[in-house]
Amino acid sequence: MKKFIKSIVALTALTLVAAPICARGKVANAQADSGKAVTVYSTDDKYNYRLSDAFTRSPDSFEAWVNLPEYSVGGTVMGNYLNNIIGYTGSVDWEVDALGRIRVFWDNGAFDHTFDNEPINDGTWHHIALVRDKELRTFTLWIDGETDSTVSVKVRDAVCLMPMNIGVDYKNWTMYKQPLDGTVRQITVYNGAIDGERIAHDMAERDITDTYDGALIGNWNFGDTWTKEQVEETSGSGNTAELVTFEKYVPIESTGEYDYTLVGIPDIQSMVNHRPNDLNNAMQWIKNNAESQKISFAIQVGDLSDNGGVEGFYRTAAEQMSVLDGAVPYSFVQGNHDYDDNSTRSRSSVLFNRYFTYSKYSQNAWFGGAFEQGSMSNTYNLFTAGGVDYLVINLEFGPRMSVIRWAGRLCEAYPDRRVIINTHGYLDPDGSIMTGKSRFPATNYDFSNYIEATDGMQLYDGLIRRYENIFMVLCGHNCTDDSVVRTDVGDHGNTIISMLIDPQCSRVNGAAWGEDPVMLMRFNESKRTIDCVFYSAKYDKCFNMQNQYTLHF
Question: Which listed residue, 161, 259, 284, 302, has the most CB atoms within 10 A of its CB?
Answer without folding.
Answer: 302
